[in-house]
Design a protein that fits this description.
The chain has about 280 residues and is an alpha/beta fold. It is built from nine helices and 13 strands. The radius of gyration is 23 Å and the shape is globular. The strands form three sheets. It has a six-stranded mixed beta sheet with strand order 6-7-8-3-9-10, sandwiched between helices. It has a four-stranded antiparallel beta sheet with strand order 2-1-4-5, with helices on one face. Helix 5 links the parallel strand 7 and strand 8. The protein folds into two domains: about 220 residues, Rossmann fold (3-Layer(aba) Sandwich), CATH 3.40.50.300; about 45 residues, no CATH class. The protein binds adenosine-5'-triphosphate and magnesium ion (MG). The site of adenosine-5'-triphosphate has 10 residues, from helix 1.
Length: about 280
Amino acid sequence: MDKMITVNNLAFSYTKRPFVEDISFEVGKGEIFGLLGPSGAGKSTIQKILVGLIRNYDGSVIVDGVESKKHTNAFYQNIGVDFEFPSLYEKLTAKQNLEFFGSLYSNPLRDWKELLEEVGMLEAADKKVSGFSKGMKSRLNFVKALLHNPQILFLDEPTSGLDPTNARIMKNMILKEREKGKCIILTTHNMEDATELCDEVAFIVDGHIKAKDTPHNLIMSRGAARVTYSYLENGKEQNRTTLLSETGSDEILHSLLRTNQLRSIHSSEPTLNDIFMEVTGRSLV
Ligand SMILES: Nc1ncnc2c1ncn2[C@@H]1O[C@H](COP(=O)(O)OP(=O)(O)OP(=O)(O)O)[C@@H](O)[C@H]1O
Ligand SMILES: [Mg+2]
C-alpha cells in the first residue's frame, strides 16, 4: 500500500505535562482517516503536528515522504489545509483571496470558478469576505484548501456551522477527492459524517488513541444488532425484538415470514457514538 502519512509513537506536550502520547497510524492514497474525540482531546494538535506547525514533538511523523518537523516550504505544495478557524483576508473578495493564495503555489491551479460554483458561491465571488456568514467563510476556506490540487488534505471540522444542504455538498466533494486518490485526514464531532466518510477512525481521548478501526468494524465488533418486527394478534399490533444473531431460532418470526404476516421489520445497529461511549466512557454529542 502507498502510505502518504505514517505516524509512529508520536508524543508532544505544550507544558511539562504530556499532552499527546503514543499516537500511531497510517493513511494511504484514496483513504479518509478520521480523528474523533471530545473537545480538548488533542485532535487539532495532532493535525498541527502533521502539517508542520508544531515541530518539537517526539516520535516520527512522515507526511508525503518528509519528517514533518524537518519540512521545507516545498512541503506545502502537496498539502491542503482547511482548519477550524478560516484564515481569509476579510477586506478582499472571495476571488481575490483565491487569486492571492493560489499565487503562493507553483502547482497548476484548479479552476476557482468551478470550485466556487460547486460550493454554491459563484455569485459571491466579487463580494468582500467581511460580509460573509460563518458557513460561507467555511466553504471558501474549503475551496482554498483544494485550489492547488494537493494530494493530501487536512480538514478540521469541515461541516461544522453548515446547513444540511451545504454539509451534503461538502461531503460529496470530500468523497470525490477520495475517489481521485487523495489522502484525507478529517476531524469531526459528527459521528454520522465519520461513519459515512471515513475508511478508518481513531477515537482520541486525553491525547491517546483509545480505539482505531473501520467504522463498520467498530460498530459490529461491539454492540449487538437487533431486529424489531410487528404483526397483528387478535386485531392488536404486537412488537417483538430479537438479536440479529438469534433470528434463526425465533419461531414467531419464522412463522410470520412463512405466512406473509409481518407488518414491519427493521434492524438497528448501535451508532458510532454508542461505541464511542462504550469504549471511552465519554460522549461526543
Ligand atoms: N499553545 C498552547 N499552549 C498550551 N496549551 C495549549 C496550547 N494550544 C492548545 N493547548 C491545549 O490543548 C488543548 C486543546 O487541544 P486541541 O485543540 O488539540 O483539542 P481538539 O481535540 O482539537 O478540541 P476541539 O474539539 O475543541 O477542537 C486545550 O486543552 C489547550 O489547553
Ligand atoms: Mg480542534
